[in-house]
Amino acid sequence: MSVRHQWNAHLPVLHRVPGAACDRRQLTNRLHAWFKDLPEPATLVYDFGGDWLLMASALLDAAHQKPPPNIGDKLHLDSHTITHPVFEKALNFTYTQDWPPHHALADARALRAGYQAWDQFMEPLRRIQ
Question: In the chain, where are the structural domains located?
Fold first, then answer.
């Protein structure tokens, strides 16, 4: 599949959420407001270092020189975790035709599902140690 065909295959998911498109300043303001409204600190989970850099960049600007106070831990899922069969099965089960891979919200949901399944699978092993 060509790069152009791959790109066009994902175009239908753009603009899925009305009013989601925004400029850089709006993105930072929206992120700060969203985190502020969370009932408890959020753990930021990512599987690619570049994603963390993009998030950090989106959280900071001239008006926001510090991240929101209720950002909790950062959790980088390494290759051993994300390639584990339990993780992969839960991750892939989460994607649908309407919410395919490489859509930010679909990827976030899939990473969460994969991590939760893997964490639950690993719990008995952690008790042995």
Answer: 20-76, 78-124
User: Distance between CA 95 and CA 111 in Å, rounded?
Assistant: 10
**How is 2-20 classified by DSSP, letter by letter?**
-HHHHHHHHGGGTT-STT-
Q: C-alpha dihedral over 68, 70, 74, 75, to 10 degrees?
A: -140
CB 42 within 8 A of CB 70: yes
CB atoms within 10 A of CB 86: 15
Look at the pTM and tell me if it is higher than 0.85: no
Quick check: helix, strand or coil at residue 74?
strand
What single letter denotes the amino acid at residue 42? A
pLDDT at 1 over 60: no
Q: What is the pLDDT of residue 127?
A: 84
